[in-house]
Specification:
mainly alpha
């Protein structure tokens, strides 16, 4: 996966230091299309403080940001329950969890 944050920083810096002429704008070629799966949407979520404190604690235990662990939980909750998860994926997740917990 590419680092979209760094790419956006570079674009912003270029934009702040350069001006394009109308000819440059009109002759510009479109970039690669962005797939819907790669677009992240920001949303606001209100949680009681004790709940958010617990989210932060669990995220910290796993070395994740609270938003990352919440995204993980939401994605797991809406995943297709009829589709089995390969044992190798579960085993790798358990190993990673134990490693992070030991750190």
């Amino acid at each position: 996966m590419t680092d979209n944050g760094a790419e956006l920083e570079a674009i912003a810096e270029y934009d702040e230091t350069h001006e394009l002429t109308e000819d440059e704008v009109m002759s510009a070629e479109p970039g690669e299309p962005i797939t819907a799966e790669s677009v992240m949407i920001t949303t606001s979520l209100r949680l009681p403080k004790p709940v958010m404190d617990e989210v932060r604690r669990r995220a910290r235990e796993r070395g994740l940001k609270p938003t990352a662990i919440m995204r993980e939980w939401i994605e797991a909750a809406i995943a297709d329950v009829d589709e089995p998860v390969p044992l190798s994926v579960i085993t790798a997740a358990v190993a990673e969890y134990r490693h992070r917990k030991a750190s």
